[in-house]
Amino acid sequence: MKNSNQTNTVKPSDKSKIEHRKTLIKVQSIEQSFKVGEETIDVLHESSFSIQEKTFNIIYGPSGSGKSTLLNVLSALQPPTKGRVEVAGFDIYKYKPEQLAYFRGSQIGVVYQSNYWVSSLNVIENVALPLYFLGHKKTEAHRKAMDALQRIDMAPFSKKNPLLLSGGEQQRIAMARAIVTDPMLIIADEPTGSLDTKNGDMIMALLQSYNRDLKRTVVLVTHNMEYLPLADKLIRINDGQCIEMNNEDVGDTTKELIKDMTTRIDKLAESKKNG
Amino acid sequence: MDNMHHTMLRSKRPTISMKLLLYMSWQNIISKKLRSWLTIMGIVVGIGSISFLVSFGLGLQQIVTDNVVGDNSIRSIEITTPNSKIIKLDNKSIEKIREFPHIDKLGVAFSFPASINLSGGGIDSIIYGVDDDFQEMTTLNLVEGRLLKNTDTDTVIVSTAALKAIGISDTKKAINQSVEITAPLQYADSKLEDLNQKFKIVGIIDSGQDNEMFTSSSVFEAKKVPTYKQAKVIADDTKNINALRTQIEASGFQTSSPIDTLEQINQLFKFFNFVLAGFGAIGIFVALLGMFNTLTISLLERTKEIGLMVTLGGRRRDMRRLFMIEASILSIIGALMGITLSFIGGQIVNEVANQNASSRVSERFDIFSTPFWLVAILIIFMLVVGLLVAFFPAKRAEKINPIDALRRE
């Protein structure tokens, strides 16, 4: 992918040419349902979309709309009930669990809203963890982990226990862990959800630099509408239905969403006044 | 990407090394110091008590064996006749036995009731007429003088008890003293006359309360005594003893061997040691419950961590291994410490017992004996039961679904 000449001519800002980029992920009519007792709950209805390589993608939708399930399907953790997910032309769920584990470790970097750590390991060991699982030696893994920490200016924290750091610091270290294996895809699930604006913006800036400078594909799930204009592509999910929109539509969508919201708030205020 | 596809399909994908899994397990153990120590202590007490009790059993067994078998070679066989009138232990049969395979040494002995007389009234004793080989096989505890020579015809070795009976208490003065010995040889052949001869005391032995004398077999051979009282054989190897005995018994003789007693002792102690190990096993059982508890709590606490590791590329079998390794580390540390403590305890008891008994016992003895095989068996045993206990938590760790584990609350 690094040798692909096609994208070198396309500036990140040149949104109209996004569609001409190579497709990295192709989601083909996936459906997801879970059985709870006798009942079958459909979480994702038939949805198809694609994600182009080296683009910044945002999945947006209200809570309970199926965002997390979609993300699990994309991050090779949950095979869909129907349909297929192709990554660079390979139907990933045809692979065995152990092969998928290797795929996750080598090709996907994940950041979550809340931070998860192996509490008995320090910062650098936690960052190096994906490399451990890929069979790297400890010294080599730690060297790469240190590089990743340096990139986000967290190198002085390498020997600390991650659980003793602040939320913002933890989230930055999670960002280092997400890129330590040099994955092609970074999946961020509400990474700013539990941070203040300043720290949240810092994480967003990092994600953007991973996309622009490191040329990684980013898939972000967020509630925060402020970030929607950053996306090359927006995937809106509502009641398990995915609708993909390109950047030129994003502005309009944002306006629409904000209009919807202000109307809701106005209505609420009015009803209170009347009540 | 093509490269990735390739790597994924390969049957031997690079994966986490055992060294790193060990490191991660170790980090987890030391991050929960108190809990890990309590678990290890349980194992220390359990394995320590088994080790201590079994070492005690083995030590006692060794002491008893040493006392019973004593200086007799474990390879020796005593040969007697069940009926001296019908089956004669004479020169002819001895020569026949000498031809049997697997014989290292063969000695013969006469024995008669006798009276020993220094000046006037004699006292009752027993006299053995032994050849050189028999004398060698019968370890005589010489306190003064020398042993017999086959060429001697008028020398005798007397036990301290016999010496006291004839009124000599100073062993040094007894050497070269002349005594008169009478023995009724009719016990062997009714045609024979009594042995009545003066002997010179050349050696004095300590055989406890036994009132006995030894002289050369040539004394009785000169009197034409036709049959020996007993013979003793040393086999060339312990594994040939049974074959040799069968062969000798086929000729009509009776045999006995220290192995008979030894087998009885071993049988008894096998049972005794099992009972002792059983008491210790109660401790192990409690320790295993503790370890099961620790691993289960650890599993519940680490559900999210395990989910995370699977998300980051960890394989399910690696998650299982983490628990198995952790159980192994706890087991081995606990077992080593338990054995070491029980060994130190046993050595202290040995030392104290030897100090107290030094005035009465000449040789050093060990009440507690911890052979290497016991150490090896205990470590392997603990490792196996530790892994069995870890099996269920480890299986649960393997089955953790990362999506459920990391679900947002």
How would you sum up the global shape of chain B?
elongated
Q: How many beta strands in the DSSP annotation of chain B?
A: 10
Return the string of H and E elements of chain A. EEEHEEHEHHHEHEEEH
Structural class of chain A: alpha/beta
* Average pLDDT level of chain A: 84
Kindly report the oligomeric state of this protein: heterodimer
For this structure, what is the CATH homologous superfamily of the domain at 54-66 and 95-270 in chain A?
P-loop containing nucleotide triphosphate hydrolases
Strand order of the largest sheet of chain B: 2-3-8-5-7-6
Which runs of chain B of at least 5 residues are low in confidence (pLDDT < 50)? none
**What is the CATH third-level topology name of the domain at 54-66 and 95-270 in chain A?**
Rossmann fold
Question: Which architecture of the domain at 54-66 and 95-270 in chain A does the CATH hierarchy give at level 2?
Answer: 3-Layer(aba) Sandwich
Q: Could you walk me through the main structural features you see in this protein, from its secondary elements to its overall organization?
A:
The complex is a heterodimer of chains A (275) and B (409). Chain A has a six-stranded mixed beta sheet, with helices on both faces. A four-stranded antiparallel beta sheet of chain A has the order 2-1-4-5, covered by helices on one side. In chain A, 37% of the residues lie in helices and 25% in strands. Chain A has seven helices and ten strands. Mean pLDDT of chain A is 84; it is low at 1-13. Chain A has helices spanning 67-74, 97-107, 123-133, 138-151, 167-179, 197-212, 247-274, and strands spanning 23-36, 39-52, 56-60, 82-87, 90-91, 108-111, 185-189, 217-222, 233-238, 241-246. Chain A has a domain at 54-66 and 95-270: 3-Layer(aba) Sandwich (Rossmann fold), CATH 3.40.50.300. The longest helix of chain A is centred in the C-terminal third of the chain and has 28 residues, at 247-274. Chain A has 275 residues and is of the alpha/beta class. With 409 residues, chain B is α+β, with helices and mostly antiparallel strands. Chain B folds into two domains: 18-69 and 264-405, no CATH class; 76-236, no CATH class. Chain B is 55% helix and 17% strand. Chain B has 14 helices and ten strands. Chain B has helices at residues 2-9, 18-31, 33-69, 91-98, 132-137, 160-165, 171-174, 218-222, 241-250, 258-301, 303-311, 316-357, 372-399, 402-405, and strands at residues 76-80, 103-117, 123-130, 142-145, 155-159, 178-183, 195-205, 212-216, 230-235, 254-256. Chain B has a six-stranded mixed β-barrel with strand order 2-3-8-5-7-6. In chain B, strand 2 (103-117) and strand 3 form a beta hairpin. In chain B, helix 10 runs parallel beside helix 13 (372-399). Chain B is elongated and about 110 Å long. The model of chain B has no long low-confidence stretch (mean pLDDT 87). At the A-B interface, helix 2 and helix 3 of A face helix 1, helix 2, helix 11 and helix 12 of B.
